[in-house]
Design goal:
CATH architecture of the largest domain: Orthogonal Bundle
Number of domains: 2
Number of strands: 2
Protein name: Cyanate hydratase
Enzyme class: lyase
GO molecular function, one term: DNA binding
CATH topology of the largest domain: 434 Repressor (Amino-terminal Domain)
Pfam family, one: CYNS_N
CATH class of the largest domain: Mainly Alpha
Low-confidence stretches: none
Helix content: 40-55%
Number of helices: 7
Strand content: 15-25%
Structural class: alpha+beta
Keywords: Lyase
Length: 145
């Protein structure tokens, strides 16, 4: 079973059972964003994690096997056109060069790791409408010659 097929079954089962992504992550004892990403096919899970998901969502063994497989990371152009996802691309197109300059000014020549990395999403109340707070927390990797 492909990871995208497994993701569709997982999403449907999650909705059918009335479970939030947060509840599933809590059951697995894993970070929320990582868990959601893994269940959507972007990270491999351990056998224990895959079995826990299978049992929690009452899915068959083929889904668990898919969750353990190495993914082909990234997204197709159709997914990138989704308005929520596209806004991240837009924000990086506008602010990416400034962020790069500020990282280099603060840390020196290097990059932020997306492998040794954590990401979190939170809601912050605001009188003009709630704010979405996304935190990228990546290890600085300096270029060494």
């Amino acid at each position: 079973m492909s990871k995208s097929e497994a993701a569709e079954l997982i999403t449907a089962a999650r909705v059918r059972r009335g479970l939030s992504w947060a509840r599933i992550a809590e059951e697995l004892g894993a970070p929320l964003v990582w868990t959601t990403s893994a269940l959507l096919g972007q990270h491999p899970m351990t056998r224990e994690q895959a079995d826990a998901v299978r049992k929690l969502l009452d899915l068959d063994e083929a889904v668990a096997e898919s969750l353990e497989q190495q993914p082909s990371r990234g997204t197709d152009p159709q997914v990138m056109a989704d308005p929520t996802i596209y806004r991240f691309s837009e924000a990086l197109a506008v602010y990416g060069p400034a962020l790069k300059e500020l990282i280099h000014e603060e840390f020196g020549d290097g990059i932020m790791s997306a492998i040794n990395f954590k990401v979190d999403v939170a809601r912050r109340p605001d009188p003009e409408g709630d704010r979405v707070v996304v935190t990228f927390d990546g290890k600085f990797l300096d270029y060494r010659w």
